[in-house]
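[Structure tokenization] protein backbone as discrete codes

[Encoding] learned vocabulary of local backbone shapes

[Begin record] amino acids and matching fold tokens:

___
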Amino acid sequence: MEIGEIKRAIEEWSKARTSADDVLAYLKQGTCFKIERSNYDLWKTKSPKELHVYLGVFNGQLQFVLIDSESDKNPEANIDSIVVQDYYPGLNVLDGGIIDHAKDGSVKVVEALKRVMRWTVFMESWVRNSVESSAGVFQAFVLPFSDLTSQFETAGCYETMAIFGLNGKNADLMLWGMPTTIESSGLRTAAVPTGEDKGTPVEDISTPCPPFHNDGLGLL
């Protein structure tokens, strides 16, 4: 994928975020996107401090543009470090195979579930209020790269799912590790944990931009 196409998709989301109806139409297309171990292995060679997650609209479909913070200093020269992930429908973190694997990480599992439920219930009102605010709806999220290290190195996840939540007045992204390899509609379904399974931590120290500011977002 060419850098021009990626930037146009991000700009398309930037235009859409001024309309509550457009934002809701895109956000309702799915529930989560995934980050794969191969993505993590690609980025970690740069020793980044952060992962930058942009929203982009490609041919009418919301997708997520991921790039490590070191590569994002000059994205045109680091096109190979950009990963575009689909927005998947249908993931339910309350499914036994997912929640049974989860353990407290930077956020407690119970609190993470509350944030997911708040997003599910209040997403529409949050979007309509945010569109009218000075900051507007988010264009990107910044995640500490240490969250990915916790998922892929410490817990040994095969992939992790990024799921929206609502933390107070701010939108949120939470990482739910998926340790097993059962393929289902493009997602990997976690199996019931065994006695040897120590679980995967739920991580959540994401920063939505806006309302927060980050000078290192090179694709904006």
About this structure: The first helix runs from residue 3 to 16. The chain is about 30% helix and 30% strand. The chain has one domain: 3-207. The two ends are 17 Å apart (CA to CA).
